[in-house]
Structures are given as structure tokens and as C-alpha cells.
Design a protein that fits this description.
Layout lengths: L10 E4 L12 E7 L9 E2 L6 H5 L4
Antiparallel strand pairs: 1-2, 2-3
Length: 59
Amino acid sequence: MTGHSAQAGDFYFVSFRGSKLIGREKHPFSVTSAPKNDPHEITFTIQKLGDFTKKIPSV
């Protein structure tokens, strides 16, 4: 995120490269809150609707 500050409504493609529990495929998720105290922290709100999102809590 060099030179860019996350804003609510932005989106990022997320993947979990080190996990065998979930595929390495990238999926887009919207930012639901911008960082306040830590510029490296972003909050996503993810609903468990599909195979990928249902596995995220186990990662």
C-alpha cells in the first residue's frame, strides 16, 4: 500500500498462500474500515456465503 491510504469502499484481492485448508486463489473483498492507529491494518467484513468464505475462519 505504498503511497495509498485505505478507504472504506476500496477492495483488495485476498489469498492465503500458506494454508492447505483453503485454496490459493485470490478473491476480492471490500474494505469496511480504514486504519486509524496502525497504517498496516485494514478491516474486511466477510459473509460466509461460498466455499472459500466458509473456510476463512479456519485459517
